[in-house]
Structure formats: C-alpha cells, structure tokens
C-alpha cells in the first residue's frame, strides 16, 4: 500500500534537490517559525525535515477502521473483566491506590475521552505497540507545525500537483471535550472555562499548553494554565487563579499526582465533588497500562470479542505479556515465559508497564545476553511487559546532515488520536534510531493526507 505514496515522496525530494540553496533557506525558515510560534519541546524545535509525512486517503481510512475495532475490543474486554480487582492488580499491573482513584464515581462514561494509539509503520502495514490512554501530548504541536509547513514555498509548490488535507487533532479533541461535557457530564455552560493542569516546573511541554490556551481563547473559551498545587476547591468547584473552572484538562499524570498528593488536596476534592468536569477521568488508567495489550493478545480474554475485532488485533497488535514466572501461549505453543524470553531475546522488547518517552525500554536485538538477563530480572521485579518486536519499515527522508543533503533512512511512528469512538488526526515522529519518542530525541512532523496519488497533469 505504501508504494502509492512513492510518486509524492519522489516529487517532494526532487523539489528539495532542484534548488538546495532555497531548501537551506526554507529549512532555516522552518526552524525560525517553530521558535516564533512556540512549537518547541523544551527549548528545541520539533521538526527537522523539510518533508512532512504523508498518507493516502485509503491508508488513512484503513487506520481509522482498525482503530475503531481495537477500541471496541478494549471496551469489551474492560466491561467483562475489569470488575475483578485481583485481575487488575496481577494481570494489568494496577496499584491499589490507582484502583481506588479509578473507582471514584464520575458522570463521564468514556474510559478515555482523549487517547492515542502509538504504532510503527511496517513494510506493508502498521503495528500498534502501546495505548496512551491517560494524557497524550502533541495535539497542539502538530496543529501548529501543519500551519508552519503550509507556509513554506516548497510545500505550496508541492501541493499544486499533489493536493492534501490536514486533520487537526487539537480541533477534534476540544470538540470531543465539549461534547462529553454537555452530553455525558451534564455541563450547563455554553462557553465553559478550561484549566490545563500539570506540574509546571521543568515540564518540556509547557509551550503546548500555551498553544492550547491561545486556541481556546480564539474560540471564545476562557482558559487558565496552572499547577495542581495552586488550585482551590470551593463548594465542590475547582477555582484557578480565582476563576471557576468547568472543564479541567488533566495533563497531570496520576503517577505524578501521587508523588505530590499531600500538596494538592483541592485537586482530589474537586474530582470527588464532580462539579468540574475532569478530562480524562482517573478511570483512564485502566486502559493506559501497556499490559492492556496482554489482554488483547491472550485467547482467554479475546474469546469474548467478535471476529473483526480479533482479526484487527492479529494483524496490528504484537504479542504482549506481563513479565513474570508463568506458563502462557505463544502462537499456539505452551511456553515457560521467562525461559522463552531468555532463549529468544532478538525477537522481543521489554518495557515498563507505565512509563513514557521510551524510558526503561530494552531492545532484545540491541542487547548483550547479560544485559537482556538483567532486563528480565528487573522486569519481573518491577512488573514490566515483554512484547514481540515489530519489523519496522525505514523510509528515506532527504535531510541536511553534517555531510550535506542525504537520504536518511528513518522509522516512522504513526500515532492516531482517539476521541470517544472517533479518530481525529495523527501525530507522526521520525528517527534514525530505533526509538522515535520526542523525549528520546525523535523529530515530530505533521501528517498530511494526499487527496490523490497521481500527477495532476497526467
């Protein structure tokens, strides 16, 4: 399917190569605009390639259909199995305090009002490797980067022959928040006031908070960016800098809240009162753990799914298990999990059950046997997951390097956002290494959908 992208990619690269002086000038424009428009992770620009990423309409529709089926599968499994507290602790890896917070009643039905499925592109398709169900970042960055690319003369020349469209994750997410606030939570304000809440010291994504605030204010919604320790709770309502808050956009991860819980009791008090609408709710942790993919790839749980859901999982979810002494099934074989992991390290990756940014990930094919054994021991102790390695496709990007302009083979991280049942755009990241996370040094790019993949004059 990716071969349909090649004419567009070749044309974009040709436009770069035909005038490298102009390309260098526009690359500088790309960097300058990111600083001026605050599309920065910490203090550094997000995008380093003159070419963004592309999907065809058919590819986007395929991702959309797959995401819907996998989301339905997760909801079905959660409805059948997640009332078992022992299962939540042992199989999903929930801590007792996480279970306690998730059990607080809320009027919001969705387990995750805003989520993101993170995938790698393969030679013929894509494979999801984790589900960011708690507080996915990047929506405003992608929205701003799309505007920056659309201002580049090179991009404008490209679209004369290859028309594109852009789906804004930020627009979709905020519309979903308003829908949930009115339809599920029962919010009464026609123009609700937002608070974006996170620990603000040393957080590299504060620029994104400012971008979201600016976006909401342009639409006529009040918005405050605030640290949870600065919140007040009055008669059950959350107040931020003296302003009553209707929708609390929760960028503060539950793990981070737990570390500072004694200093931000109004934050928890407001959640219990359920007058201010928290999105996402604390129930999002139920689908955020990486071990959710263990449920999706284990027959004892997937037996409750319908055939299309099971097929989508088989094609797009790598085999995953929590790493602990046990026997389990792998492609029809009964295996001792730890022995099997030791004997087949090049086929697997070990990762923390609840972390982000690629931290703590051990790649079997890139590790020595002693490093792999240590990762297994640590993983058993810490409750990590082991996951089958994905055969990642590398796509060339014509980029300026220390050696001049070169075709740099790069992996592409394709991460569609999910807002309720709807998919709303994608975050894409590229990297020359085996990790594409921004926190691991990867570059973020906007993803444009090609309205057609043929030459406009043909």
TrEMBL record:
**Which species?**
Longimonas halophila
Superkingdom of this entry's organism? Answer: Bacteria
The entry's protein name is Circularly permuted ATPgrasp domain-containing protein
